[in-house]
Amino acid sequence: MTPAADERFARLRLARTDRIGPVAFSQLLGRYGSAVRVLEVLPDLVRKSGAASIPPPVAGIERELADGERIGARLLVLGDPDYPEMLANLDPPPPILWARGRVDLLNMPSIAIVGARIASAGGQRIARGLALQLGQAGHVVVSGMARGIDAAAHEGALATGTVAVLGGGVDDVYPPEHADLYARLIDQGCVVSESPVGARAQARDFPRRNRIISGLSRGVVVVEAEIKSGSLITARLAAEQGRDVFAVPGSPLDPRAKGPNELLRQGAILCEGIEDIERAFNTLRTLRAPPSEPMDYGEVDDAFLDRVAALLSPTPTPRDEIARALNAPMGQVAAALLELSLAGRAELLPGGLASIK
After folding, report:
1. What is the DSSP string of 179-221?
2. Whole-angstrom Cα distance, residue 356 to residue 210?
3. H or E stretch covering 12
4. Best exposed site among 83, 238, 336, 349 by fewest CB in 10 Å?
């Protein structure tokens, strides 16, 4: 069902509320049924838990919408018909996306190609050629518009369809020398971001960006990457999301080959060309998530909140483990974790995990 205009506005406002990330957003919608209702009850939750989760002013959300309209960007809210199905099946999905260009590309079969910013000429040639072949075979190529491998992948797939996921807003051209590539992406491809229009990318934005790159894709190909790199984070996220991870092997003498070679040791699929990708997809399991049962959230008091908080640690803990330790219903524990997160005492993580803030 498509959210009505007031619900779409409320979802954007809720998504921009401090301390409400994708996990809390999904759980609040599950508990109260709509973002309009969440915003109605949020003041009571804030008073009860001492939270700092105050929604931004209505005028600020109106300004964000006007900024998007000014640059011709489209707002995609979870529940919209054009919202990418692959992202909707994530646990949890990004609540909102801004998009410029060909929004239809977001619901077409996609493969991500990522890798080093300081890439070798050979690595860039591989990325460009692989993207060209994938596009000709009917795949949209997803990447992050960074220097090196990302840019080469976009260049190879511009004629057939490519999506760039940005850390800043959809109008944040970074690096600046990619202004021409960005203009062509807007014209021939698509640019998307979770961040507000006008936002400049910060370091904290890139893990979210990488999660969308892998989430949009059936698989992720890593061409060149050092061991500690964003590309390997994207590969890890892809594996957690049930996507296949492909790695292009390289010389052990090149530090940029250490990342892909390590992925191969961990069980990634060897990728020397498009044939390896198509072979894997011929036997690929469905990525469609089974419909989840709605959770029956219970009421919690301060004493129960403290008991749940006492079981948290910096190491992520499954909420079913907390429920067993307390001999309490899962819904009651989920409600407590949600309120603790609004108060800044806990962090909700994908997969039903929580840690101390």
Report:
1. HHHHHHHHHHSEEEESSPTTPPP-TTHHHHHHHHHHHT-SEEE
2. 24
3. helix 5-15
4. 349
**Residue 167 in tokens:** 């850390």
Name which of 128, 120, 69, 76 is nearest 98 in CA terms.
76
Token couple for 8: 């779409």
C-alpha distances (whole Å) from 176 to each of 46, 156, 164, 316 are: 41, 20, 15, 38
Per DSSP, the three-state class of 317 is strand
**3-state SS class at 147:** coil
Q: What is the pLDDT of residues 194-219, one digit of tens each?
A: 999 999 988 888 889 999 999 999 99
User: Among 129, 73, 72, 71, which residue's Cα sits nearest to residue 97?
Assistant: 73
Given a contact cutoff of 8 angstroms between Cβ atoms, the answer to whether 13 and 39 are in contact is yes
Which residue is listed with tokens 């890439």?
119
Question: What's the pLDDT tens digit per position in 102-132?
Answer: 999 999 999 999 999 999 999 999 999 999 9
Q: Is 171 exposed, middle or buried (0-12, 13-18, 19+ CB in 10 A)?
A: buried
The two counts, helices (H) then strands (E), for the chain are 15, 12
For residues 269 and 284, what is the distance between their CA atoms, to the nearest angstrom? 12
H/E stretch holding 164 reads strand 162-165
Copy the structure tokens of residue 178.
Answer: 């990619």
Residues 6+ apart with CB under 8 A from 184: 158
CA distances, 6 to each of 26, 52, 64 (Å): 18, 24, 15
List, in sequence order, the alpha helices (H) in 16-148.
Answer: 22-32, 35-49, 58-70, 85-88, 121-136
CA-wise closest residue to 120 among 221, 224, 222, 262: 224
Give the span between the Cα atoms of 137 and 275, in whole angstroms.
11
pLDDT of 56 above 70: yes
Residue 91: count other Cβ atoms within 10 Å of its Cβ: 14
